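SECTION: protein entry
WANTED: fold as tokens:
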Amino acid sequence: MQLQDQEITFCDIQPVSVNMHISSLLNFAMLLLFPSHLSWTVAAIYSNTSFADGPYIAKPGCPSKCGDLTVPYPFGIGINANCSINPFFDINCNPSFNPPKAFLGNLEVLGISETKVHIRNNLTSLCAVPGYILQGAKFYMDLSGTPFSFSNQNKLTVVGCNHVSFMSKLGTYISACVAVCSKPQELNNGSCTGIGCCQASIPKGLQYIDTTMMFMNYPSGDDNFNPCGYSFLAEQNSYIFSVSDISDPSFVDRTMGTVPLLIDWEIPSRTCNDSSGIICEEGSVCVDPDTTLGGYRCNCSQGYQGNPYLSPGCQDINECDSNPCDPKAMCINTPGSFICSCPPDYHGDGAKYGIGCVYLGPPEKTAVYAGLLVGCGLFILLAVSLWLYKLLRKTRAKQLKQSIFKRNGGLLLQQHMSAHDLLLGKMRIFTSKELERATDRFNENRILGRGGQGTVYKGMLSDGRIVAVKKSKQVDKNQQEEFINEVVILSQINHRNVVKLLGCCLETEVPLLVYEFIPNGTLYDLIHDDSTGFPFSWDLRLRIAAEIADALAYLHYATSIPIYHRDMKSNNILLDEKYRAKLSDFGISRSVAIDQTHLTTKVQGTFGYLDPEYFQTSQFTEKSDVYSFGVVLIELLTGQKPISTSVTEKEKSLVMRFLLTMEENRLQTILDSRIIEQGAKEEHLAVANLARRCLNFSGKKRPTIREVATELESIRPCENPSCIESNTPDISFTEAESFRFRDDGSLWTQNVGS
């Protein structure tokens, strides 16, 4: 849409009438000692407008003035005179006025800047006329299809009493303003906050607005001291409310001429990314306006002025013309900037608003003074910096220590200790340096093993004791609770067959636990690693089983609060120098109230050892530990792993294979060949029957761990077969009991007939 072909619409349905090294050292010292003088740089930055007065304002051969108005290119005076960048920017200069007036389409232009056009305003008014009921007044403006939009620096303004103005765009409200008052005493000059005058913002990029003005309450009687109200869109801060405006009959004409409306403009159909069509000349930069019109503008670079759309473009500003330097200094203009040079024997930055030029005498004295100033400045700077560094380092170290302590569960540990009436003195609190020395900075060669909760290192303390240091993985909330839980559990335990916790360290990135060192590895390795060559006798297996059963019985019945291990497996049974069993890894263990029969938790544990009843119900009982112990018993009997990958899919589970052989009376086929050679068949059968009872699908039918420990102790010294048989009842399966296995052989249930 071209402006001369189709006017910009502005309609109101209610008509209204309208020396260089020394100098550098001195400057550096001055900046150190007098940093406030740096503010001169702010004052020395010269703002400029792209359209400064000069010979390159309008296109050559085209007029640059219409009356008192300067018309810069890309705008141009004349219709179809090729003086503008395109017909949208044609300015019609009407000489019938004195002085002549400029029009953009049908809009009177009051001024043109590098980003905006100031146009003469228009107002709508709404007055109460006796005998008539006026529904409202409207006006609209349409800039659609042009490179112009209403600037969001305009404000929707309403002046009056009980008047409201709504601004909409295509039926959607975008702004509104309400002015109320009942008597003149309520009004205040300069206040436009809703009493007699209100203002509201509009969004950016609007090209079409439709404004409706209405009464909130139709005035009548003595309250109607001002029947008229006014609504207009105008540049913010250009209108200042006066109480007299409420009843001034000349308000409309006066405001239209003095309060402009702002319109943003840009060069259409190109953006700064489209370099082939950009006309920004030398010394200027392309700017994409923050609108949705898809155009661009050109601005002169810092320190330049002129018209960025016309050759030769923006020209360097001679800043020296504004005397920015000290009177004793010489100003040297540079492209886009300037330099202030002090005379001989004077030193400093030479700036009028900076250090200026300071006389320090001949060069010899100047060097001394400069050296002293630099030395003093550097000394003060160094001393203050060192003090601040030490203070900051000390504060940060303290905060980091507290943060790591909290993150590693220090507060949680304190709560647990308070709840369980424990004394921190029972354990030693190690420093991170102690444990780094003990483990040779956690050398890979010191690793004893890796588990789900972390890595265990072998270490030697300063007193010569060998210890195992457990370094937890990066702690999240759940692992933090497991770590603290292990500390709390182990601090309550004092048993010869439970690994002893010596202390902990909470000041490292990840928490550390220090245990007594158990030298002979795990029961799992002893059972399943034939390369050791160790004679793993039946008597030793039976003793280890009895020791672990005794340790579990201690946890279940002898501690002040019963403890369920919840991860009973051969990997968590350690062997000391005499191959005595030591139960370890209490990361997921839990304490329970004496009158509590089970724990309802998320299922945790090791595949192959999990109680199927616990797996199905999420309720862990003391009999769940008994089931896992039963799996360890059949590991000792068979020498096989709980889950095997070398057999068919349905025979993966050792428990499944063991129970089937027991049901078919084929125990000898599954026993470890190393114990068959040693005889003691009756003891094998007794332990197998005990294991079968522990592996009963119903937790209620399993023996307690105390009964298991007692029975194992009775088997060990008993050499008379009749004694073993009498002490170990043979549990046979009835017709009402059957086994069901899933295809992967991993989970099974028992159906019990009524």
User: Anything to note?
Assistant: The radius of gyration is 47 Å. The longest helix spans residues 363-407. The mean pLDDT is 80. Residues 471 and 512 are 5 Å apart (CA to CA).
